[in-house]
Design a protein that fits this description.
- Heterodimer with glycerol kinase (glpk).
- InterPro entries: Dup_hybrid_motif, PTS_EIIA_1_perm, PTS_EIIA_component.
- Residues 1-56 form the PTS EIIA type-1 domain.
- By secondary structure, the protein is mainly beta.
- The chain has one helix at residues 38-43; strands at residues 2-3, 17-19, 34-36, 52-53, 60-65, 78-82.
- The protein is 7% helix and 24% strand.
- The strands form three sheets. The protein has a two-stranded antiparallel sheet. It has a two-stranded antiparallel ribbon with strand order 2-3.
- The longest helix is centred in the middle third of the chain and has 6 residues, at 38-43.
- 2% of the residues are buried.
Length: 87
Amino acid sequence: MIIHIGLETVQLKGEHFDVFVEENQKISQGEPLIKFNNKAIKKEGYKLITPVVITNSENIEKIKFNESLSITHGQKLMELKYIKRGV
């Protein structure tokens, strides 16, 4: 999964972001991924539209989205049901 917080925010080179996980790291539900200062990012002129891209969709049977326009701490963005494969 790729989560890109804000549009063109890569130009900030990590400023205003604290990342708690590494690429390819296994995570658990409720584990914090990133913290960011939305006020500082907006003040610098960036929009906080956040695309979420699922990169292994061939392994997912069903996706249920939270259809709210904004998600706050503790709310689910989506639920994924993975395809069960033989062991």
